[in-house]
Amino acid sequence: MVRRRSFKAGDLVCHSRFGLGAIEDEWGSWVDIDDTGNELMVNGAGIYEVRFEHEPKPRSINGSWLSQGLKG
């Protein structure tokens, strides 16, 4: 069983490729409208905007690829 991690803004996290970073926000869920006007439920829960130390822009990362970061 895969354990789902839940992070909040400001949490320090670690990614195996990008290193240490900080959670800026979680995508969450929303409703979109397709070309024919139908509502589409979009589930972005567990997808986080993370600002990594050596990256110029935040990256969208699935929480399953993140672990709790080290505290200074």
The H/E string reads: EEEEE
* Rg: 14 Å
Which strands sit side by side, in order, in the main sheet? 4-3-2-1-5
N-to-C span: 31 Å
Which structural class best describes the helix and strand composition?
mainly beta
Give the beta-strand count.
5
Average pLDDT value?
Answer: 91
Low-pLDDT ranges: none
Question: Approximately what portion of the residues adopt beta-strand conformation?
Answer: over 45%
Using the alpha-carbon principal axes, give the shape.
Answer: elongated
> Number of domains in the coordinates?
1
Percentage of residues assigned to helices: under 10%
How is the main sheet built?
A: 5 strands, antiparallel
Element layout with pairings:
Blueprint: E1 12-15, E2 19-33, E3 39-52, E4 59-62, E5 66-68
Antiparallel strand pairs: 1-2, 1-5, 2-3, 3-4
Quick synopsis:
This protein has strands at residues 12-15, 19-33, 39-52, 59-62, 66-68. With 72 residues, the protein is mostly beta strands. The chain starts with 11 loop residues before the first strand and ends with a strand.
Q: Could you characterize the architecture of this molecule?
A:
- With 72 residues, this protein is mainly beta.
- The protein has one domain.
- Helix content is 0%, strand content 56%.
- The chain is built from no helices and 5 strands.
- It has strands spanning 12-15, 19-33, 39-52, 59-62, 66-68.
- It has a 5-stranded antiparallel sheet, with no helix packed on it.
- A hairpin with a 6-residue loop joins strand 3 and strand 4.
- The model has no long low-confidence stretch (mean pLDDT 91).
